[in-house]
C-alpha cells in the first residue's frame, strides 16, 4: 500500500514537472518576440538606429532603396546651406568673398524639396564655393546658436561625389540623411532565436502624445540622448536647453508607472560630435556644477551620472552605452551586447536563471 502511494506521488510529481516544463517553454516562446520601444527627444538618433538594424540584420539597402534617398540627401544639403546663410544674416557675419553672393542667391532661390535624379551643377558649385568661404565657416562654428542638421558638414565635404552623374548613396550617406519622424514606425528583424519589433516614434513634443499606444507589453526601452546637444536649444522652444529636456523626459519615462518592471537601455549618442565640440564649447557654461573642464571622459561621466541618478527604483537596472549611431561596426557590437541583456532578462523572467 505504501509503495502504491509512493508511486502515485511520483507519477503526480512527474506530471506536474512536465506541465511546469511546458509552461516554461510556452513562456520562452512568447519571450522570443522582443518589443523594444525607441524613445528620446527629437534628433537624438533613433531613426539612425533603425537604419543600422536594416544594414546589420535585414540585408541592407537595395539599389532601388538607395536611389530613393537621393532627393532627401540633396534636400538636406541645400537646406543646411540655406540655414547657414540665414544664420549669417542674423549673426551679422559677412561672406569673406563678396563675389560668392551669386552662389548664395542660387541656394536661397532653390525650393526646400529637390525632386531630381541628380544635383544641379550650379547648386553643387554654389555649395562647394560657399563651404570654402571663411564667413560660412565662422558661422558653422557657431551652429549651436541655431538649428543645423548634424549631417551638414558631412554632405558639404562630400559634395564633389554627391553631384556626380550616376551617384548612388552609400550606407553612410543613407545613415546621415534626415527626415523628421512622424507617427509610429515599426521595424521587424531577427537576431538568433529572437524576433525584434522595434518601434520608432517621433521625438518632438508634438509627437509624444502618440507614445501612449506603444506602452503595452514592452520588453525593453532603448532611450537615446544626443550627448552633443548640451549647448543647444529645442527646435520647438528656444528657451529650453536640449539636454535639460532630455533629462526631464528620461525622468518621466524611467519612473513611469507604465515601466515599473521594464529594463531601460540608455544610449548616450553622438559621441563623435561631442568630442569635436567640447574643447570649443565649455560644458560649465550650460551646467555650472560641472568641474571637469574640457576632459571628454569627465564630461561623459558627468552626463551619464545625471541620467542614471534619476532612477528612483532599486529594482530597476539601467544599462548604459556611449555610442555613435552612424558607426555601423560599433552599433553592431553594442546591439550584440543589448541582445545578450535581453536573453538574460528572458531567462530570469522564466525562472531559468
TrEMBL record:
GO terms under biological process:
cytoskeleton organization; G protein-coupled receptor signaling pathway; pheromone-dependent signal transduction involved in conjugation with cellular fusion
Stored Pfam families: G-alpha
Against Gene3D superfamilies, the record matches this protein to: GI Alpha 1, domain 2-like, P-loop containing nucleotide triphosphate hydrolases
Q: Which GO terms describe its cellular component?
A: cytoplasm; heterotrimeric G-protein complex
A molecular function (GO) held by this record is:
G protein-coupled receptor binding
SMART domains in UniProt: G_alpha
Amino-acid positions noted as binding Mg(2+) in the UniProt annotation, renumbered to this chain: 47, 181
Where GTP is bound, by residue?
43-48, 150-151, 175-181, 200-204, 269-272, 325
User: InterPro entries in the record, alphabetically?
Assistant: Fungi_Gprotein_alpha, Gprotein_alpha_su, GproteinA_insert, P-loop_NTPase
The source's domain of life comes to Eukaryota
Description of how the protein assembles with itself and partners: G proteins are composed of 3 units; alpha, beta and gamma. The alpha chain contains the guanine nucleotide binding site.
Designated name of the protein? Guanine nucleotide-binding protein subunit alpha
Where does this protein come from, organism-wise?
A: Coemansia spiralis
Organism phylogeny: Eukaryota, Fungi, Fungi incertae sedis, Zoopagomycota, Kickxellomycotina
Encoding gene per record: GPA1
Amino acid at each position: 500500500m505504501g509503495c502504491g502511494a509512493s508511486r502515485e506521488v511520483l507519477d503526480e510529481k512527474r506530471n506536474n514537472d512536465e506541465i511546469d516544463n511546458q509552461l516554461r517553454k510556452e513562456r520562452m516562446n512568447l519571450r522570443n518576440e522582443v518589443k523594444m520601444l525607441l524613445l528620446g527627444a527629437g534628433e537624438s538618433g533613433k531613426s539612425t538606429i533603425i537604419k543600422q538594424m536594416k544594414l546589420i540584420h535585414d540585408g541592407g539597402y537595395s539599389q532601388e532603396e538607395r536611389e530613393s534617398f537621393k532627393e532627401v540627401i540633396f534636400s538636406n544639403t541645400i537646406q543646411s546651406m540655406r540655414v547657414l546663410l540665414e544664420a549669417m544674416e542674423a549673426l551679422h557675419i559677412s561672406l569673406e568673398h563678396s563675389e560668392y553672393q551669386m552662389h548664395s542667391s542660387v541656394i536661397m532661390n532653390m525650393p526646400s524639396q529637390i525632386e531630381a535624379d541628380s544635383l544641379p551643377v550650379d547648386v553643387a558649385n554654389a555649395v562647394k564655393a560657399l563651404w570654402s568661404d571663411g564667413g560660412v565657416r565662422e558661422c558653422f562654428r557657431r551652429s549651436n546658436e541655431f538649428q543645423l542638421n548634424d549631417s551638414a558638414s558631412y554632405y558639404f565635404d562630400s559634395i564633389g561625389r554627391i553631384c556626380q552623374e550616376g551617384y548612388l548613396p552609400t550606407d553612410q550617406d543613407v545613415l546621415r540623411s534626415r527626415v523628421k519622424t512622424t507617427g509610429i514606425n515599426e521595424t521587424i528583424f531577427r537576431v538568433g532565436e529572437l524576433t525584434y519589433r522595434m518601434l520608432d516614434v517621433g521625438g518632438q513634443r508634438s509627437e509624444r502624445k502618440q507614445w501612449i499606444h506603444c506602452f503595452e507589453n514592452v520588453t525593453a526601452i532603448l532611450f537615446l540622448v544626443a550627448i552633443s546637444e548640451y549647448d543647444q536649444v529645442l527646435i520647438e522652444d528656444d528657451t529650453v536647453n536640449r539636454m535639460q529636456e532630455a533629462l526631464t523626459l528620461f525622468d518621466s519615462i524611467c519612473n513611469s508607472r507604465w515601466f515599473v518592471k521594464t529594463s531601460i537601455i540608455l544610449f548616450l549618442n553622438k559621441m563623435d560630435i561631442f568630442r569635436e565640440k567640447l574643447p570649443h564649447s565649455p560644458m560649465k557654461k550650460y551646467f555650472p556644477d560641472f568641474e571637469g573642464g574640457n576632459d571628454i571622459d569627465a564630461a561623459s561621466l558627468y552626463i551619464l551620472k545625471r541620467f542614471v541618478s534619476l532612477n528612483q527604483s532599486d529594482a530597476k537596472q539601467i544599462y548604459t552605452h556611449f555610442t555613435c549611431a552612424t558607426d555601423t561596426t560599433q552599433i553592431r557590437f553594442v546591439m550584440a551586447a543589448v541582445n545578450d541583456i535581453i536573453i538574460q532578462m528572458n531567462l530570469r523572467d522564466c525562472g531559468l536563471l
